[in-house]
């Protein structure tokens, strides 16, 4: 038998030598790493074809069973199995390892057959011509067109044997990606959950109102005054259970006063001084408010303590109106067209006690609101929002959100004398946690200006008299007992 050894620095070169020597029918018998390099033992497929016939012993018929059992595990059968092409060598190794595993588990019947053949004449097994390693190494023969990384030796894990019992154990449903229909269903389920919770809360509050008529009456009064159901419910949830009708009303009014932020007595805008910019929607009275503040400061500290600047270049008479108020007070009004001009005028008026900046009126949904706020980004400048106290609650909410309520120095409630319901303005100030810096209750300059007094404002808001087509009926109160939620501060932090 022609068996040759090939040594090369790498396994790829050793395999190439074997293929050049024996061609595509080369059979790899063993591989190992030696001090001289990588060693490969190989032989031609034709030289192994006669081993199977030469390994058959001429034994007596009585020993045929033992001979078959011994031949099953002998090297002769292995060499016969090795008479194959190089491409099927891996399948042969896997089959041999599987057979060894079965023999170790006792699945092979070789011991039993060997015991029966013990009484017969002993048959010496044929000695193997080639010493094989105890644990065969699987080395795929490198093809010339394969990449280098495929030529490295690798040991593959044996796949598990599938039976009828475990055929469906590892069967899992295929992964399914979320579709647009699934997302729409999730949104509908969430909306259904919110509706169920709202209905249960409504039923709970209706049941509570039947048992507590004082609570139901107070809710009706707060809704008629213009307060939001969110704030009204948050207050009534904390109402003392043993309080009478009059005591409960006083407790609710005191709770509203404690949560309404106002400037301290003697610490108004004129007393604070500095640079104050009045911002707000169109027609809320910013120019008139600027004239009232200037008049208050002139009355206390003199005409030289006030500076007037307007950024209102949109209206035809905007600058002229402020100039007219300034001539009445003995103060010069200046016009700034952009941020650079505003900075120059602020430097010119830096010695004044109070500098008032009047801005152009922009609705809360105007895209230019952010541009105007960027112009007013000047150090030490305080932005004060002028709110129409008679506006709708939703409009006040949007205005506070558009003008960045968390960055405001405070708000001024204008047109209080025209407001039928003052509750929406106070409700929004409480929920957005802004400070009321003053109250303008008329057009006269400077008489119609007052400091913010929470007791007066709350009493004025709760004093709504007369019937209105927009007042809720007692049968509609169930719609106002919904779960607390909405814009503004979380009402769990109310001070009661």
UniProtKB/TrEMBL annotation:
SUPFAM superfamilies: P-loop containing nucleoside triphosphate hydrolases (SSF52540). The keyword Transcription regulation does not apply. Keywords: Bacterial flagellum biogenesis, Bacterial flagellum protein export, Cell membrane, Cell projection, Cilium, Flagellum, GTP-binding, Membrane, Nucleotide-binding, Protein transport, Transport. Residues 273-463 form the SRP54-type proteins GTP-binding domain. SMART domains: AAA, SRP54. It comes from the Bacteria. GO terms for biological process: bacterial-type flagellum organization; protein transport; SRP-dependent cotranslational protein targeting to membrane. GO terms for cellular component: plasma membrane. GO terms for molecular function: GTP binding; GTPase activity; signal recognition particle binding. Coiled coil: none annotated. Belongs to the GTP-binding SRP family. This is Flagellar biosynthesis protein FlhF. It comes from Hydrogenophaga borbori.
């Amino acid at each position: 038998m022609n068996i040759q050894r090939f040594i090369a620095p790498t396994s790829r070169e050793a395999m190439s030598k074997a293929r050049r020597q024996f061609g595509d029918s080369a059979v790899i018998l063993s591989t190992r790493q030696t001090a001289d390099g990588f060693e490969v033992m190989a032989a031609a497929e034709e030289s192994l074809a006669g081993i199977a016939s030469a390994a058959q012993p001429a034994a007596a018929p009585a020993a045929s069973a033992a001979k078959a059992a011994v031949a099953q595990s002998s090297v002769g059968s292995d060499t016969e199995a090795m008479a194959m092409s190089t491409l099927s060598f891996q399948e042969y190794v896997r089959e041999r390892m599987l057979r060894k595993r079965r023999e170790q588990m006792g699945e092979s019947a070789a011991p039993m057959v060997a015991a029966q053949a013990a009484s017969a004449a002993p048959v010496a097994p044929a000695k193997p011509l080639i010493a094989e390693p105890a644990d065969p190494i699987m080395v795929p023969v490198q093809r010339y067109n394969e990449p280098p990384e495929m030529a490295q030796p690798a040991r593959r894990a044996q796949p598990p044997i599938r039976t009828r019992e475990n055929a469906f154990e590892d069967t899992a449903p295929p992964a399914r990606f979320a579709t647009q229909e699934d997302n729409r269903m999730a949104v509908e389920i969430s909306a259904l959950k919110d509706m169920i919770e709202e209905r249960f809360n409504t039923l709970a509050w209706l049941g509570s109102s039947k048992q507590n008529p004082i609570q139901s009456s107070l809710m009706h009064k707060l809704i008629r005054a213009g307060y939001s159901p969110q704030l009204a419910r948050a207050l009534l949830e904390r109402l003392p259970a043993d309080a009478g009708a009059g005591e409960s009303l006083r407790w609710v009014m005191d709770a509203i006063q404690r949560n309404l932020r106002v400037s301290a007595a003697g610490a108004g805008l004129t007393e604070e001084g500095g640079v104050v910019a009045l911002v707000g929607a169109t027609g809320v009275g910013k120019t008139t408010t600027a004239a009232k503040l200037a008049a208050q400061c002139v009355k206390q500290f003199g005409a030289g303590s006030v500076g007037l600047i307007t950024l209102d270049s949109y209206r035809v008479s905007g600058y002229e109106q402020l100039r007219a108020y300034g001539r009445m007070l003995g103060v010069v009004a200046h016009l700034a067209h952009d941020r650079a001009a505003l900075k120059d005028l602020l430097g010119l008026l830096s010695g004044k006690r109070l500098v008032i900046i009047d801005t152009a009126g922009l609705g809360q949904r105007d895209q230019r609101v952010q541009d105007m706020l960027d112009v007013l980004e000047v150090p030490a400048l305080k932005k004060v929002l002028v709110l129409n106290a008679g506006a709708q609650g939703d409009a006040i909410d949007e205005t506070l959100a558009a003008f960045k309520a968390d960055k405001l120095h405070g708000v001024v409630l204008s047109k209080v004398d025209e407001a039928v319901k003052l509750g929406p303005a106070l409700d929004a100030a409480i929920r957005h946690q802004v400070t009321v810096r003053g109250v303008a209750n008329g057009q006269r300059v400077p008489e119609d200006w007052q400091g913010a007094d929470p007791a007066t404002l709350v009493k004025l808001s709760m004093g709504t008299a007369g019937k209105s087509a927009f007042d809720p009926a007692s049968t509609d109160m169930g719609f106002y007992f919904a779960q607390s939620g909405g814009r503004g501060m979380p009402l769990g932090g109310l001070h009661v």
